[in-house]
């Protein structure tokens, strides 16, 4: 089961209300030019709302709806001209009647040609004083037109070719002055005449995916919209994330000051162009649960007619989402009849993971779809590999929420589960208990119970010190909220779930090879003060085990690829080598492999009592001499100082 992420006319989000409101606003005064913004994060459903607007206007007489996707014109030299030509070309394609209005069509294309020439001459300004193009500028555009008509794909006849070249050559004569504002106003009048000739009462242009464009493309498209803003009977609906457009403004106009009064210039620029903004609201918990149910059942029933009945029932619930918990089994049975049994698994899954998704995806439809696709693919992979019975979808969904939105938490849980003989994370039990206590205390306070006021006097005075990891988790509100989600994970064997998430990271690599030594490695990744206490324990390791632990630590140190400060594990390496002096050559191998030009001062000091055997000491001093001439200034200085100190001791 794969959920497609294409825009759709089928409304599962109750966004049809926004589309209907925009249509009513557009048609209220069709002669009035207006620009409407449909705003929302990526994946919020902006493209689908444009589809609904286009569908809702399809049968209205005198209305022509054109769509323009800015992203598809990303590689074009001039997105501004692409939009203008796209609108005019769309008019000609959708209104064959214009073929009889030869003069109006010729006039509008002549004016577009003028805009092209102006663009080639430097952004609608030929010379600072007169605005008159040079012969070279006209010649360059003529060459461009020749190149276009030389393309066999254009199927241009020799007659058309000559007419085109003659037309551009005669468009602007060196002695003829063209005033830019007057010419733009003339273009608007010509465009209005074209609409009248086409019998169009209102032209509505839908612009999508503008927030996916590079800044220059986005701004050029908006500048083209500005050209039409005061053209009667023309309306624009622009779907874009405001934050991305504001970013484009700041990148395109880097010299603008950051702010002007309470708002910055980027926001003012957008609000000048977008007269009426609509922001798509995020889905709440009930809306998310209904959406997930419809997605999962829709994947099973596809185009079944009874599915439309279920959508209608869901829309009824979405009118007042605060009064319902979602689509229950009875509603599904009433809508689907005999087919209800076919979608029981989808309904059960929706009940299990709906609350989790509502909590983790912040009500973003695209994130919900991507999450569901990844969840189902991983579960199917587990089934194909023969351990699908051990992977429960609600557990997998909860772990994936941590993986997606709290990656550090997931890494900590996964590492602990991979090391544990029973696949459990011991700290999860403490986290879930603490989260439940916090939730219960909050509930009591809201209820005003005496227990909440007086405190929990019945609790034991015994205090068990938390691990550093558990203390970190308890301090984070987002992690506590995640821990409150059902099901509980404290008693779950996490290994099947970690195996199915290996597409991201293999948590079993070190654990499976090291076995019980994995816990030793984790201890040695701690702070300098903490690892000092493990020296006695490390002496209990046999040489082969110590070498195995050293290699794992070496891999962690070099794998960090950040050497300005001592990387995690280097203090553990020092304690391990002090406990097992036979590892001194291994330590020198590690130090010699460091990129000296990227290191801070730490490699040159702190090895007293660690590197102490004759050959290893001599080898380290040779390394200090090499570092003292390296390009890394901090390491160079520290290495030179260490050499002087060693010389003074002799």
From TrEMBL:
SUPFAM superfamilies: P-loop containing nucleoside triphosphate hydrolases. Residues 16-380 form the KAP NTPase domain. It comes from Hyphomicrobium denitrificans 1NES1. Pfam families: KAP_NTPase. This is Kap P-loop domain-containing protein. The lineage of its organism: Bacteria, Pseudomonadati, Pseudomonadota, Alphaproteobacteria, Hyphomicrobiales.
């Amino acid at each position: 089961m794969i959920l497609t992420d294409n825009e759709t006319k089928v409304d599962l989000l109750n966004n049809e209300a926004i589309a209907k409101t925009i249509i009513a606003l557009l048609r209220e005064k069709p002669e009035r030019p207006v620009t409407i913004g449909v705003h929302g994060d990526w994946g919020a459903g902006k493209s689908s709302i444009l589809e609904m607007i286009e569908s809702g206007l399809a049968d209205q007489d005198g209305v022509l709806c054109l769509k323009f996707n800015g992203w598809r014109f990303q590689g074009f030299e001039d997105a501004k001209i692409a939009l203008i030509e796209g609108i005019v070309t769309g008019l000609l394609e959708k209104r064959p009647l214009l073929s009889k209005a030869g003069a109006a069509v010729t006039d509008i294309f002549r004016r577009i040609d003028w805009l092209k020439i102006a663009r080639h001459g430097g952004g609608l300004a030929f010379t600072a004083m007169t605005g008159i193009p040079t012969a070279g500028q006209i010649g360059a555009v003529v060459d461009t037109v020749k190149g276009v008509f030389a393309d066999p794909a254009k199927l241009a006849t020799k007659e058309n070719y000559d007419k085109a070249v003659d037309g551009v050559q005669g468009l602007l004569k060196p002695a003829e002055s063209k005033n830019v504002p007057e010419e733009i106003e003339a273009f608007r009048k010509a465009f209005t005449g074209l609409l009248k000739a086409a019998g169009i009462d209102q032209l509505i242009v839908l612009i999508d995916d503008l927030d996916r464009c590079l800044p220059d493309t986005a701004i050029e498209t908006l500048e083209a919209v500005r050209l039409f803003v005061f053209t009667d009977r023309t309306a624009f609906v622009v779907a874009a994330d405001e934050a991305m457009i504001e970013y484009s403004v700041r990148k395109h106009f880097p010299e603008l000051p950051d702010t002007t009064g309470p708002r910055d210039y980027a926001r003012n620029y957008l609000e000048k162009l977008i007269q009426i903004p609509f922001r798509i609201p995020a889905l709440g918990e009930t809306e998310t649960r209904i959406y997930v149910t419809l997605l999962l059942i829709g994947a099973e029933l596809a185009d079944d007619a009874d599915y439309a009945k279920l959508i209608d029932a869901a829309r009824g619930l979405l009118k007042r989402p605060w009064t319902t918990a979602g689509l229950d089994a009875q509603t599904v049975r009433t809508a689907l009849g005999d087919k209800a049994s076919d979608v029981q698994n989808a309904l059960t899954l929706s009940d299990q993971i709906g609350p989790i998704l509502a909590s983790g995806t912040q009500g973003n439809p695209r994130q919900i779809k991507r999450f569901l696709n990844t969840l189902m693919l991983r579960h199917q992979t587990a089934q194909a590999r023969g351990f699908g019975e051990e992977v429960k979808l609600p557990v997998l969904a909860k772990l994936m929420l941590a993986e997606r939105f709290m990656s550090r938490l997931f890494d900590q849980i996964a590492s602990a589960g991979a090391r544990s003989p029973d696949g459990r994370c011991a700290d999860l039990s403490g986290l879930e208990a603490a989260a439940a206590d916090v939730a219960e205390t909050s509930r009591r306070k809201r209820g005003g119970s005496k227990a909440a006021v007086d405190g929990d006097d019945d609790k034991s005075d015994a205090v068990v010190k938390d691990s550093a990891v558990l203390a970190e988790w308890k301090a984070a509100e987002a992690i506590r909220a995640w821990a409150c989600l059902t099901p509980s994970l404290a008693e779950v064997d996490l290994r099947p779930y970690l195996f199915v998430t290996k597409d991201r990271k293999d948590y079993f690599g070190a654990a499976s090879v090291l076995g019980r030594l994995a816990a030793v490695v984790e201890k040695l990744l701690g702070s300098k003060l903490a690892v000092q206490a493990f020296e006695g324990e490390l002496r209990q390791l046999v040489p082969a085990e110590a070498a195995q632990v050293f290699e794992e630590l070496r891999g962690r140190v070099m794998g960090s690829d950040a050497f300005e400060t001592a990387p995690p594990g280097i203090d553990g390496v020092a304690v391990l080598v002090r406990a097992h002096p036979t590892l001194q050559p291994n330590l020198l191998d590690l130090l010699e492999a460091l990129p000296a030009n990227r290191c801070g001062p730490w490699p040159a000091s702190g090895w007293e009592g660690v590197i102490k055997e004759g050959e290893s000491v001599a080898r380290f001093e040779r390394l200090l001499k090499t570092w003292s001439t390296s390009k890394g200034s901090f390491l160079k200085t520290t290495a030179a100082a260490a050499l002087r100190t060693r010389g003074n001791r002799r």
